[in-house]
UniProtKB/TrEMBL annotation:
Protein name: Restriction endonuclease subunit S
Keyword DNA-binding in annotation: yes
One record GO biological process: DNA restriction-modification system
InterPro entries, per database record: Restrct_endonuc_typeI_TRD, Restrct_endonuc_typeI_TRD_sf, Type-I_RS_S_subunit
Domain of life: Bacteria
Any single Pfam family the record assigns to this protein: Methylase_S
Amino acid sequence: MPTRGFREDDAEKARVMSGDVVLTVSRNCGYAAYVATEPITTTCASNFVRVLRFDATQASSHYVFHFMHRAQFRASLAPFIRGTTMKNLAVANALAQVRIPLPSIREQCRIVEVLDEAEALRAERRASLVQLDLLTQSIFLDMFGGPTAVLSRWPVRQLGQLLDFMTSGSRGWAEYYAESGDLFIRIQNVQRDELVLDDITHVDAPHSAEAERTRVQAGDVLLSITADLGRTAVVPEGLGAAFINQHLSILRTRALVPRFLSAYLTSPAGQRQVLGRNRQGVKAGLNFDDIRALTVPIPPHELQCEFARRVAAVEKLKTTHRASMDELDTLFASLQNRAFRGEL
C-alpha cells in the first residue's frame, strides 16, 4: 500500500472513516466506493480522490453510494472532466448539478438492503469465475507436475524444434479499422490462457501476402511478445477470419496439443522461462530466437488430449457462469434504475 506524509490539519480533512463515500476525481474519474468498516489504522485519501460525508438525518451514505455507483452518474460527470494525459474532475461544479432522489431514511435503508443482496449475488458469481480460472492450472499441475517436476518427468525439446510455423503481427493496421468485418486480435484480447473478444477490433483486411502471413488458424497458440509478456490463448474453431497485431506471435505446431502448449507457457515453469528471456532494453520483449529456445516438456499425446478434454469441460462451465453473470448484471442495472425512480 503506497504511503505519503500529511500535515496534521490536512490529514484530518482527508481522513477516511466508516460510512464515507470515496470518489475518484483524477485519471478514471467518477468511480465511487463505500467505506463499510472503520479502517484499522488512520487512513487518508490522496489527491486523486475525494472523501464525501453526508448529513445522516437526510441521507444514508450507503444509499448515496448506490446512486453514484451507476453508469448514469458517471456519464453526468463527463462535461466536468478536463485534461488529456491526466484527466481531472471539477468536483464542486460536477457535484453541484447532481440531483439525488431522497425518500425517507427508512425507505433509503430498504433500497440499500435490496441492492446489497443483488450485489452479493454478483460477487459470488465473480468469485466462482475466478475459481474456474484457477482450475485449469490446477488440472495442469495435477496431471503434469509443478515448475520442477514438469521438466524432469517428461522428455523435453526446444520449442523451435516443435514448431511448424511462427510469425508476429504487422504494424500500421489502424488504417484498416472498420465497424465490422474481419477480427483484429490485439494484446488485450489475449489473457492468461484465454482469448477474450469483449473488446475486439474489426478490420477490412487487405488482400496481400503480408496480411495472409498474420492470419490465424484454428489451433494456433497466440503468445504476447511485448509489454505484458507471456499471455497465451488458443484460437478456437469457428472464429472466422482474424489477424494479429505486432504485440503477438503465432505458434503453430502439430507436435503438441495446442491447449497443452498454451497452458504450459502460462504455468509457473513456462512463465519462469518467458520472463527469464525478456530483453529489457527500452521495453519488454521477446524475439523469435528467444521463443525457439524455450524448453517444452512432451508428455504422451493421449495425456495431452485428456488435458484438453478436461479444460473444454471447464470452459463450458465458464460459459454458463458468464451467461448467468450477464443476467445478474442486467438485473442489477434494472434494480438500480427502478430504485432511483421510486419504483422498487
